[in-house]
Amino acid sequence: MHEHRLVERMLNILNEASRKIAAGSDVDVDLFEKAIDFIKTFADRCHHMKEEGELFPTIEQKGIPKEGGPIGMMLHEHSIGRGYVRGMEEALRRYRAGDKSQAQVLVQNARGYANLLAQHIMKEDNILYPMANRVLNDADRKKLDTRFERIEKKEIGEGVHEKYHHMVEELESGAGIAQE
Question: Could you tell me the domains of the chain?
Fold first, then answer.
């Protein structure tokens, strides 16, 4: 859940940048490139990989259903989120190539992603994770923590968490967004 708080801060940045573009400002290409990097690396390759590769299979073995249950819904939403990110990447690429109409496509995908992930995080924090806590024992949690650390080292490397915390702080100050 701690990682969710950082993702929420990035969602606030995306929403603020999208609001400015919708109000007529130019696209801040650097901001969106950094946001996409954060989402693909921190949110997806680190956080979602931990869930998909370790947490979800473990709690499914403990009786929380995948098909027709909360795990299946979370996996589906991860997939939808990846589609929004691909949409942002493509719109940004076309915008950089001179197609300024892509600014609105970028905004639509950024807002779609931010809205999806905000609801997704709420469901995980308030429904799925409490369910997981009820079925996991201390040994399960310790094993998951070890596996999560291995995923972080293998997938994103040492010091990357800190890099993305710093990036979010930098983007917040540049976008005029106060940290809560």
Answer: 2-175 (1.20.120.520)
